[in-house]
Amino acid sequence: MRIGYGRVSTRDQNPDAQEDALTAAGCDRIFIDKASGKLASRPELDKALLTAREGDQFVITKLDRLGRSTKNLLELSEHLRSHGVTLVVLDQGIDTSNPAGRLFFTIIGAIAEFEHSMMVERTHDGLAAARARGRVGGRKKALRPRQVELAQRMYDELGDDGKRKHTVQDIADELGVARTTIYRYLERA
């Protein structure tokens, strides 16, 4: 039996191209995860691995769809091999049923991990360069310092009955933010 596995990194990505390629490759069952390769929990991969039996082929479109690190790829490959299942990678032409395929798999896995590491390093370098130029990444603050002061004053203000004059919802409505934002800023103060 040919078992196909595909993965997209985010919910926004579409797995149709992978599914079409796996169907064209003659896969009897296809499992698709919508999760980051770094996540330990990939339920469809777990199902696919449990489905695989001795003599089966485990088919993926690209090596990076199975995992991001060489260690993880090698562990999965070893798991498949120990259960008598061969790994077939369509785009790279890898078939681990022979020694040359196993060697090529290991080399391609190492290159994929290196490529990912270089991308991460370039991202960190770019962020450091931006910080050096005074640009700070991340989400903008929901409230400016003056608004935080106003929120705190409104929150602390008591009515004639000794109870709070303004509810957190009143403060949030006044400043145009969610209640949770007000709570977050009040906790910091």
Automatic annotation (TrEMBL):
Keyword set includes DNA-binding: yes
SMART domains: Resolvase
Domain Resolvase/invertase-type recombinase catalytic: from-to ranges: 1-134
GO terms classed as biological process: DNA integration
Active site (UniProt): S9
Superkingdom of the organism of origin: Bacteria
Keywords: DNA integration, DNA recombination, DNA-binding
GO molecular-function term, one example from the UniProt record: DNA binding
Signal peptide: none
Family the entry assigns: Belongs to the site-specific recombinase resolvase family.
The protein, known as: Resolvase
Organism: Streptomyces lavendofoliae
